[in-house]
Amino acid sequence: MQGRLKVIAFLSGAGWVHTWSEVYPSAWVWLVNVGVAGLILGCCKRKPVLTKWLVLVGCGLLGAAYVNTLAAWRLGEQLPITDINKVSKVQLRITSLPRLQPDSRQFQAQVLQSQPSGLPQEILVHWSSPSRKGPYAMPQYYDFPEIVPGQVWSMSLKVKPVHGARNPHAFDYEQHLFAQGVRVLGSVRGQPELLHEHVGWRPAVWAERWRYRVRARMLPHVSKHRYGGVLLALAMGDQASISPGDWELFNRAGLTHLVSISGSHVTLIAVMLAAVVSWVWRRCRWRNRPWAERYPAQHIASWTALCTAFLYCVLAGWGVPAQRTFLMLLVVVLARLSGLVLGASRVLLLAAFVIVLWDPWALLSSGFYLSFAAVAVLLFRNYWQGLALRVYQGWQRAGHGLYQAVRLQLLITVALFPLLAYLFHEISIVSPVTNAYAIPVIGSVLTPLALLLALLAVLPSGDWAADGVARCAAYLLDYVMLLTEYLISVKWAVIVSAAAPFWALLWAVLGVVVIGLPRGVVPRVSGLAMLLPALFYRPTLPAYGQWQLTALDVGQGAAIVLRTQSQVLLYDAGVRYSPNSDEGLRSIVPYLRSQAIPEIDVLVLSHADLDHVGGVSSVLQKYAVTQSWAGFDVAAFVSREERLLQRPAGTVRLPANMQLCQRGVQWEVDGVRFEFLWPSRPETDTLTPSLGQQKNSQSCVLSVQGKYHRAMILGDVGIAEEEQMVAAGLLPHELVLVGHHGSRSSSSQVFVQATQAAIAISQNGHWNQFSHPDRLVQARWLGAGALFFRSDHDGAVQVYSQPDGLWYQTERERRSRYWQLKQPGSSEG
């Protein structure tokens, strides 16, 4: 027991470092470890109980020191400030499987030489087609040269440090790339030159090169089928060919773990091949002596399973679930061969310990916790069942086996509910049903077929057979997904769960343990009750007369969510990047889901620029809207988008009531009054591209007056419109969402003085091409006594109007982590 506690302490210390806002000098941390070791030696004879506790503390500090040291080394690689957003001449070796899109390529590379020098060693390169035609144009095929892992290229790259949006309870892009060792991003300029293809002796590069060849041979066979990308993902873990729409379908059905390389796939394939080898081995003879007498069939089966798992994990890209599965198999096989008996908890903890030693940032992956949780439920459930073993015969045995399989799947599904709710803010109610038929079909049939397809594709004369296997697998998968699409079409298929506090997750995990205990120990209904706080948690809403405003981090665009006691208002919907990517899907919908918001009561769309309304179609597809106010014809805009995106008319559900905003229009809800201060008169013809300046001048300016404070959201109005609002008798506003992203054409000195704002927020993209916010504008707000926040430096900004004052928090400060890009202070004033 003491050994397991020590491993848990080490893992806890390692995970503790990932909550720090900065790392510390390694010498200091190791000095603390030396001090604790000295205390242990001094107390080991006189105070044995205290010594045991000190040993656990020492193990935790050892884990923290280990991760702190590695993090400090990785943070030491930084892009020089003088090189940011400038072009560097770089020689690099491609080290990852390139991500293929019709109009782009993306890959990870090792920097060999750079001019100027000082570029970090690991870089993520994006190579775009020169013929990109805008956010509505469908990707056009571009003839890129073949990009193979191991190649050495000379490229001109525009480089910048890793920076990602930071919104509450959202994906952390900076964390994701830091865990992979990537410290800089590069975009190709000009025409790169291939220097040579000498790979060297790096096993990881050879493995990626092998994966590239397998994918290249499989693509012609899978690309012609609707779910061909799933076959590619099952065989080798390449998920780039699965569309965002399909990922959403798998998430809602609870099948995501089946369409990626998971531990169950690796284990199943390893066991199947091991069983075949064991069967053959027991029946082979040499000189009238069975092979099994020379070397036991169980041992050869164990080695076969281990080698099969290793090859499959390498083909799959060696992700966290693959690492966990292989290391667990390694521990089990070595223990079995040596005659050592290990319990389930020891196997799990040893695997986790080795993974963290190998990759400390695996603790940041949701897959780490989900995969270990699923296996823990499986192992410990089997352990408890072993305490009350019964013998069944014939059909009774088969029926009992089926009953236990369904029961175990239901237990695993329920057990993972709290983690899924905490990580992804939604729970698939139909997942027990979909998994009941999908696990045997995808795990036992489609995965072996996908691997057989990969094998046949790489054989010199196996194309005809590979094509037949691909066709059979695709047809079977089509039928599986047909039933799945029907199941998730019902309204109750998915429950949205708000982001619950950490204590609710811990309480729910304890409830899962209670559910898994043998019958009669504790009533299982009490365990189900313990899940409820995590699954049905709801955030505290503002009181009557109060409001809560969240300015989301949506790059060079605008999106603000304002909540009162009973209603939700969304002002603008962010920017559109491409036909399949916009801030509505990236940031707004995930945030609304994390708050368990079922619908939008009021939608305000300031004007028809794509940095303000680019994500509106995505939002309208996910959320019903009761009332919309806009500076343009929303129905005409949505209809135009449907044509440009080549979607059927009526795909997007329009708001129930649509009106144009105009000065003087006002309404009140929950003791909070909303009023439009601009435009002076509505203008319907604001969709024409040539009228860009007119669109800005027609922005809807919204004033929000609660019981204690006022807020104003300006859209993109300029100085002329600001002066007219001041002349009309503008009242002071404690909070101002700065106009036109802090452009020099807005925020005049007269307007800034008239608002008397305590907080000013500018929504900007990092290193945007317009240099927003303008330094003069920022200085103007600071000089007037306001705190000035900008989303590119501070992330999302949340402001709460309360009786004791205007409270605020920024996401980069609330959840500050050592890997995030450090920015100069932006809230000084």
UniProtKB/TrEMBL annotation:
Matches recorded under InterPro entries: ComA-like_MBL, ComEC_N, Competence_ComEC/Rec2, Competence_DNA_uptake, DUF4131, Metallo-B-lactamas, RibonucZ/Hydroxyglut_hydro
Name under which the protein is recorded: DNA internalization-related competence protein ComEC/Rec2
Keywords of the record: Cell membrane, Membrane, Transmembrane, Transmembrane helix
Domain Metallo-beta-lactamase: 556-766
Membrane topology of this protein: Multi-pass membrane protein
Organism: Alcaligenes endophyticus
Pfam family, one: Competence
UniProt keyword tRNA processing, yes or no: no
Cross-referenced SMART domains: Lactamase_B
TM spans (from-to): 27-44, 258-280, 300-320, 327-355, 361-384, 405-425, 437-460, 472-494, 500-522
Subcellular location as annotated: Cell membrane
Alphabetized SUPFAM superfamilies for the sequence: Metallo-hydrolase/oxidoreductase (SSF56281)
